[in-house]
Amino acid sequence: MTMRRSAGGTRLASLLVLLVLLACAGCEREARRFDDRPPAPASGDAVRLTPLEAGPVTKQVSMEDRSDDNAWDTAQGKRLFSQFNCTGCHGQGGGNSGPALMDDMWIYGAEPENIYATIVQGRPNGMPSFQRLQSQQVWQLVAYVRSLSGLLAKDVAGGRDDHMQRKAQEQSTDPMKPRDAQPRPAGQP
Amino acid sequence: MSDSRASDVDVAALPTTVFGPRDLGWWGTVGFMAIEGTTLLVAASAYLYLWRNAPTWPPEHTLRPSLFWPTLSTAVLVLSNLPMIGVSRAAHRFDLAELRRWMIVASVLSVAFLFLRWQELLALNSRWDTNAYASVAWLTVGMHASLLVMNACETVVFTVFLHTSRVTERYFSDASDAGVYWVFITLVWVPLYALVYLGPYFI
Amino acid sequence: MTARAVSPSRLATADDHAAAAELERTWGDRPGLIGWLSTVDHKRIGIRYMVTAFVFFLLGGLNAGLMRLQLSQPENGLLGPDRYSQLFTMHGTTMMFLFAVPMMTALGIYFVPLMVGARDVAFPRLNAFGYWVYLIGGLLLYAGLFTNTGPDTGWFSYVPLAGPEYTPGKRADVWAQTVTFTEIAALIASVEIIATIFKHRAPGMSLNRMPIFVWAMLVTSFMIMFSMPWVATASLFLAADRLIGTHFFNPAEGGDALLWQHLFWFFGHPEVYIIFIPSLGMVSHIVATFTRRPVFGYTAIVLANVAQGFLSFGLWVHHMFATTVPQIGSSFFSATSAMIAITTGIQIFCWIVTIWQGRPRFRVPFLFVIAFVVVFMIGGLSGVMVASVPFDTQVHDTYFVVAHLHYVLLGALFPLFGAFYYWFPKFTGRRLGERAGRWHVGLFFVGVHLTFFPMHYLGLAGMPRRVYTYLADTGWGPLNLLASIGAVVLVSSVVVFLANALVSLRRGTAAGDDPWEADSLEWATASPSPPYNFVHQPVVEGRSALWDRSEAGPVVTGLRTDVREALVTTVMDARPDHRHFAPSPTVAPLLAALATGVTFIALIFTPWGLPVGSVLLLVTITMWAWPSREEHADQRSQETGAPA
Amino acid sequence: MIQLGGHSALHPAGPQAARIHDFWQFLWIVAAVVFAAVVAALLYAAFRRRGTDLDPPAAHRSAVRAVAAATVGSLVVLFVFLLLNFRAGQALTMPPDGAVHVKVRGHQWWWEVVYPAATPSDQVTTANELHVPAGRPVVVELTSADVIHSFWPPSLVGKRDLIPGDVATIWFQADTPGVYRGQCAEFCGHQHAKMGFLVIAEPPADFEGWLRRQRNSSATPADSVAARGQEVFLATQCALCHTIRPTPAGSRVGPDLTHLAGRRTIAAGSLPNDPASLARWIADPQGVKPGAFMPATPLEQADLDALVAYLGTLE
Q: Global pTM?
């Protein structure tokens, strides 16, 4: 009897645990962060590709603003990606005159700060510099770009959008272990 | 018993096992048939609604479904009602041995349905996330598939029960209700088959 | 020569005492937590349903209170749009899916078996399962809110706003699964209520002798059965769009945003009637009891209920007059929307005539009925107005409609509160305080008008729904402040009710079996009723089961008391047909409900939830269906007629 | 303080809204009468002095008659209602001749307004303001760029939804010159509450003049401050989303600002169009419309003032 009773108790407990787990999944991932981050213009030298630095130490962009853990920010990145015409060169991620972003090949690094620097500073062979963006917007773009090759948690990566579909939705994209790749010679698509 | 009066209703003599609409279980079965039927009706109406909106059906660059496996499967579903006649006859006769035999046949069939249904999904020839046509086709077939899965589980478990446990009368009534449900899910598939697989060929 | 007892409080003979004692053993639950978790008694589950639904009512009211606070002045900074959107979505979803429908089905689950003179509902274990699923659904929704995953796209979740592109994250999925859970619960309730009504009626209670509330629950159950699958399937489509990338609602790939609206409102309009048809049934009972005469026009009222049931499926497009649906179709829906007013009108006329002919006792339930007619008339008349396509294009999605729908739904709430005062003795054996009750009805009546009447004007003055704030220049401030003050009055009336209930629970005057001298069978047995409901089920001799009952009325004899044996009768005229073995208490339904919960909650995150959950379900449901040794013995003994 | 024109179904300023308003008058009067009758009957039935009642059969007969009469009565009322309703509907859906054609596209959370023209260069694009000639019907073609919105200037006409993948049309007419406010009426996300617009009805001549001016590009900044402001505009993120003809800034993400200074409000009717509000909107849009897609632009005070001054020159 008593054993059974405790069994009943544990069942209720397990239900609660389930909800608590849901909770942890919730909070961070779901926040809509409109203005809790002070506007800061993205600066090219803010992110370093190497910890070494000659001369006086320059300021670093705070990683606070990173958006890889937030579904809403990632969705904003998706919106900016098409609004700023990244699609013009990268297509829907499949690449065109610019390199594909939904594969495991990374010319300038797959780490968030690498991608941040690539967007802000621009790269040879045509990647323009988006220095005028807000730091927050860049991080949102970084999150989306990483979601294209499945580098984000599935419940953060986006679903299908309301347009013609040219690729599987990000949340169904399995993680691709990043590999280094050589930049393509200029002029070649 | 001394003070029992004429106007009282004595039910002691009434039977404890009855079949069909007289039986409580039958009403439960029919209730869920109504609900599941409505659900399939919703899927079918969504299919027709999207069809009506589409310039071509299926959309360009989308293959029409192949017909071999779906047609075979539909035929098997319909014909599977013959053994169910055996089940219900055995049930009404309270003939346990025969009921056990027929239920084994039913179990085999109910599992075979699942294999056939898998082939039917592949026969749609386009993934659910291709376009709205593929989505609604997949979910219509898939929703009926979920009924087949439930039916398979139910049939197999019930068959095991019949073979392992001492069977009382009421389970014969349950068996005949299971037969009613079987008829429902096999026959309700026919219009869905016509809609999803034949539909795209006749516009 | 004394009559056999129906109520355990009126045991006369030695047989009666013996029978009652054995029934108590047979139908009672095990003590302690395990008994609580495993009970299949429709009364315990019904009470559970009601308490849970009422808690959700308070939570939904809390959401509304916060909204009124935010809107009490223009450009108020209390709540931002993000939080506000979650709040009004939670408010609508809670009130519709977690309060109104469950509360109505709960009353059905509790009273239908009592009113038809049955031992329990037709499928007691299913009944328990339904409750647990509903509870899980409600907990999921509020777990969502407290983890900032509260749905924020409205209780109607229009696509594409609720689709994967414009609502990233899991908020809309929480909504979709909550809906799935509550629909499952409601559908289950509908099946067992229908089966109970058709097969468990006491001998003599032919269909044309059924209490009006039972008729109302029958109609409601059929409406649930044929309307809820639409929203359940629609939310499945939405979840699929969001999780596995289907294109039901993506115009670019052949989908259609209006498809959602058709599917949703084909459920959504009957939903309103599902909520207030039972209320109308309660009104008929209260009117009959407190005018001391059967309701005038029984047949007219029943037919009106049935007609309402059918017509309510022909109205859904009147929620879409502002979309691109063709005009000519719309005029048909205007007609049906206007005509359904007749069905309510007839019932109101019948009640007025009954009151006219009777000698009313102005007790709290009756006061609630009078208040109900006044409030409900306003809601009904503004309902006819919005049935007009041109007028609707002005007020659709404005505060005018907010006023209209609250007059209708709170209109349905008056009889519900009245029914609480009417039936509280049956639940608890004690009466609710009369004076506090008068305060309750008064404050509630005033609060409703203060809060919602100004909204008619606000809507016409251009204030749209679902706005988290408004500019001062619009001039909407004063009336919004008035509405917010009204909300305070509403809250206070509910507080009075809560206090009244809590106090009466302990110190209320004892009620006895039939405190109101009412006429339906729930009053034929003890208050609160025993697990087996009736020592001997009464045989019904007329439409007013108790008022027409002869001195020393006839009862059912010969049902076994040592096993859970129930009488099954014929559908039309309730002739005794056979004896049925009712299942015993078990935790299996709870386990099955947990498996269901795991399945659908996992499905929010990964498609793998389906196969995994299905296995859990298979195991738990097998446990459920597989008879225990005792049960097996009981069945055999029942069939051989010999005690085990 | 935003100067608000009529914004109420109770102050109709055009044939459509007037027609509906007349119908509303009929509706509420009839409703009031029915309501009074029923409630009176109820209260009398409840509180009448109980004398000796009629004998049961007679009482029953009169009761049946009463209910039957009441039912027939309500049927008649509803029938009349449906007739008038149908007539009103007919009158409203009649397509007008000689109408001005405007395209309105809903965005989260602003309105893009386009005046199509035979030659593309003559096409005019503005935002959150419809200029229309008074006394002339206007046909609006409604589409949505993202979610469902609803176009609703209550003083002129009832609402019509903007549904993605679908084109809706609605027509209205402003009888007299004036400013009429409208607002999105279908919940469309965070800033549904602040998605307003103005319909500005002018004498036909003024309207033509306005349309002509809109076709021109903006003048090059005259003074140094404005010139500095233009540099700021082009050097910061502003240019990534907005268009100002003839500058290189040509993005269509946000509203076209070529003639911003001519508009009465900014941020979709949420702020008056004055330097202070402009500065506030640029520096802290999330404070004004949380969730709006315009990011804050941190600027030195001098640059901000220059930018506002420049925007002020965009007549």
A: 0.94
**Local structure of residue D266 (DSSP, 8 states):** E
Domain D1-202 and domain D224-311, same fold? Reply is: yes
Q: Which of D74, D160, D170, D199 to mutate to test the interface with C (most CBs of C within 10 A)?
A: D74
**Calpha distance C490→C450 (Å, rounded):** 9
Q: D158 CB contacts (<8 Å, ≥6 apart)?
A: C322, C390, C391, C392, C393, C394, C396, D9, D16, D17, D20, D92, D152
Say which CATH architecture domain D1-202 belongs to: Sandwich (2.60)
Q: Which of B164, B169, B151, B125 is nearest to B36 (CA)?
A: B151
Q: What is the spatial distance between Cα D116 and Cα D133, in angstroms, rounded to a whole number?
A: 16
Give the ipTM of the model, two decimals please.
0.92
Alpha-helix residue ranges (DSSP H) falling in A84-183: 87-90, 112-121, 135-148
Give strand pairing partners of D138: D100, D172
8 Å CB contact between A22 and D279:
no
Give all domains of chain A, ordered by start, each with its CATH number: 66-180 (1.10.760.10)
Q: How far is residue A139 from each of residues A69, A127, A143, B150, D284, measured CA to CA in Å?
A: 11, 17, 6, 47, 20
Q: Which CATH class is domain B26-202?
A: mainly alpha
User: Which residues of chain C neighbour B21 with C-beta distances below 8 Å?
Assistant: 571
pLDDT, mean of residues C513-540:
94
pLDDT at D5: 62
Asked if residue B170 lies in contact with residue B17, where contact means CB atoms within 8 angstroms, the answer is yes
Per the listing, tokens 């007739």 go with: D83
Enumerate the domain spans of chain D: 1-202, 224-311
State mean pLDDT over A73-99: 89
Q: Are C90 and C136 in contact (CB under 8 A)?
A: no
Model confidence over D240-284: pLDDT tens digits? 999 999 999 999 999 999 999 999 999 999 999 999 999 999 999
Q: C99 to chain A, minimum CA–CA distance in Å?
A: 21
Residue A10 has pLDDT above 80, yes or no: no
Q: Which of A63, A60, A67 is nearest to A151 (CA)?
A: A67
User: In what helix (H) or strand (E) does residue C565 lie, and over which residues does it extend?
Assistant: strand C565-569
Give every CB contact of residue D78 below 8 A, 6+ residues apart in sequence: C338, C339, C341, C342, C384
Contact C168 A159 (CB under 8 A): yes
C502 phi and psi angles, rounded to 5 deg: -65, -45
Tell me: pLDDT of C155 over 50.
Answer: yes
Residues of A with CB under 8 A from a CB of C: 1, 4-5, 8-9, 11, 14-15, 18-19, 22-27, 29-32, 34, 71-72, 74-75, 78, 154-155, 158-165, 168-169, 171-172
The 3-state DSSP class for residue D9 equals coil
Going from N- to C-terminal start, the domains of chain B cover: 26-202
Cite the DSSP H helix spans in C147-205: 171-199
Question: How do strand D149-151 and strand D160-162 relate by DSSP bridges?
Answer: antiparallel
CA angle B113-B119-B125, nearest 5°? 145
| Cross-chain CB nearest to C251 (options A18, A160, A162) | A162
Between the alpha carbon of residue C120 and those of residues C17, C26, C127, C195, the distances in Å are: 21, 13, 10, 11
Please give the pLDDT value at position D56: 79
What CATH number should be reported for the domain whose range is D224-311? 2.60.40.420
Q: Which of C253, C590, C601 sits opposite A18 (nearest CB)?
A: C601
Interaxial angle between packed helices C124-146 and C171-199, expressed in degrees from 0 to 180 and rounded to the nearest 10: 160
Token representation of residue D101:
């054609």
**Strand residue runs (E) in chain D:** 100-107, 110-115, 124-127, 129-133, 138-144, 149-151, 160-162, 168-172, 178-183, 196-202, 265-266, 271-272
Residues of C in contact with A19 (CB under 8 A): 139-140, 143
Tell me the pLDDT tens digit for each residue of C372-418. 999 999 999 999 999 999 999 999 999 999 999 999 999 999 999 99
Q: Which residues touch D280 (CB under 8 Å, ≥6 apart)?
A: D271, D287, D288
